[in-house]
Amino acid sequence: MVTQLAYRIERLRRYRIWQVWWWVAVLCWMASVSRVFAASDLQPLVDAANPGDTITLQPGETYTGAVIDKQNLTIDLNDATIVPGPSGAALTITAADTSLICFAGGLIDGDLDGYPGDPALPSPHPGIVVQVGADNLIIDGCEVRHWLDGVSIAGSVTSFKLVNSYLHENSDAGIHIDTNVMLNGVVTLRGNLFKENGGSGIVHDGLSPLDARFNSWGHMDGAAAGDGVSGSGVVDAGNATFAELFFAPDPTDAGIEERVVEEAEIFDTAIMVDAAELYAVQFAITYDPALLDLVAATPAQFAADGGLCFFTSLIPGEVGGYCYRFNPAPTVNAVAVPVVTLTFVALAQGTAVVDVRTDPLHLSSGAPGGVMVYVNNGGFGPAQGSGLRLITDEDDGRIVIDVPTAVTEIVVVVAENAGNSPWYWLSLAMIMIGVSWWLICRQFSGPATERKIRTHSCPPLRTVATRSAPYRSYTWR
């Protein structure tokens, strides 16, 4: 009897423990799912603000949209995301002197799916709706995607500024100016990237002419080949900007992704750019310092006509800097323009993979007047080019370092003449031992081990440059 009672108590205890664990697992799963959709409400923050206030959102947080009906408010997205609000739009602006700034990043996203990684389900509403009274509106540096139109100007306003923003993957237009709308005062559209929108980058059905020069359209040939311009209004989309930066293992052929060199060989590589209306470029690459040693870095064609290049990073394994031109030098408009020539010496056998860094701190470009130019292949949708222009992975060009030709030829000659003579085979063995020891000495002749190994057994190396040699001949203008 006692045994049966103990057995039932034990079964009940185990059942309840597993039941508790089951409910804990269910609640955890629900919490993880709900986090995808969880969003703070932006409207109470707007309602509580006073004219002249700045509303700074929390980085990484998601907010539902709001109506901006108070004058002189600044909303700093601060790397936050705004999603559709009660009206369907992210932001409906009816008050003057509103500023939307995204200097630290910021996304206005209409994706109704909500699950990261799933195909986007664009909202049937515009992302930002500009109504009558929204004079002096500024939108600066923001990403707007997955709406019917990224920005819809539904009413006439005085002064409007859309700069340095990325409007893409909207089902119709990046920006749509409605019928009979007048844009008066100062209207500025500069430094934006219109890309992969279902309709046009700009649809202009308004009454006033629109100056849309110095924007990017996802193609080197501008709006005519990229996202384009449409509508009944007059749009000047000239001076289209473009930049795709890449590393070229062989500057004489920008299509070669892999180059073979010999150990101890000194050779040139280059950082290049496909450019339209370009005036400045910033870059950084990484490489294996055990296989390559940077010998020289020289400004190339891009910085000609009195331009300058500076390095912000020059350490083993990394090269970074920027180049720009001086007025009145013309802008760069060409394919595969050398920016900097990088001269390396091959240190040891192996494959050195070069990576072009694509984070905003190391990759950027600009047009005259300080206009921002999005680097088209730097993570902003698909690149126009292929091969070396695909820089969002970690393999952006390779240097294959092989055995010196002279050593290979000696071995081949001895092997061909060996026949059945034991003396030839003995000679071959001695040569192989010597070559192996020479390679070992080179492999371990770095700054930390060179003195120890050479002191005991290795002869001094008579190559042009080695890993242990200091940096030299960095030439700048």
Structural write-up:
The strands form 7 sheets. A 7-stranded parallel sheet has the order 1-3-6-9-12-15-18. Strands 4-7-10-13-16-19-21 form a 7-stranded parallel sheet, with no helix packed on it. It has a 6-stranded parallel sheet with strand order 2-5-8-11-14-17, with no helix packed on it. The longest helix is centred in the N-terminal third of the chain and has 36 residues, at 2-37. Helix 3 runs antiparallel to helix 4 (422-443). It is elongated, with a radius of gyration of 31 Å. Residues 5-9, 11-18, 20-38 and 444-477 have low confidence and may be disordered. With 477 residues, the chain is α/β, with parallel strands linked by helices. The protein is built from 5 helices and 35 strands. The chain has helices spanning 2-37, 43-48, 405-416, 422-443, 450-456, and strands spanning 40-41, 54-56, 62-64, 66-68, 74-76, 81-83, 91-93, 99-101, 107-109, 128-130, 137-140, 143-145, 149-153, 157-163, 166-168, 173-177, 183-190, 193-195, 202-204, 210-211, 229-230, 235-236, 242-248, 258-262, 266-278, 280-286, 292-299, 308-315, 318-324, 332-346, 350-353, 355-356, 364-367, 371-373, 398-402. Strand 33 and strand 34 (371-373) form a beta hairpin.
